[in-house]
Write a structure and sequence with these properties.
By secondary structure, this protein is α+β, with helices and mostly antiparallel strands. 29% of the residues lie in helices and 35% in strands. The chain has one domain: Trna Endonuclease, Chain: A, domain 1. The protein is globular.
Length: 117
Amino acid sequence: MSLSKGIHAEDRACAFLQQQGLSIVARNFRSKRGEIDIIARDGDTLAFIEVRLRTHLGYANAQESVNKSKQMRIIHTAEYFLMRFPHWQNANMRFDVVSFSQLNVEPEWLRSAFDFI
């Protein structure tokens, strides 16, 4: 996937999440171990969100492509975020996936796609 398509997918995901009532806290938060595409507040819950775009049918779908290794990188980066911003440490947390099968279709939003391992 090209960088511009990835950025466009993240922009679309942010707009979609905001339409659903979420507030964007951060985008592309990085640590040495990984990156979280979007961090958003959903009421009293902090959602760490992976955005996926998959247009090739021969590969795993976008949600399935968030394998255990990717989940661990996201979890470690979420832990780093909480260390950097301790005022979020008492918030409820979840890990979501927003996926697109194509950029011109509505995304699928899987809340609580995986848990702390």
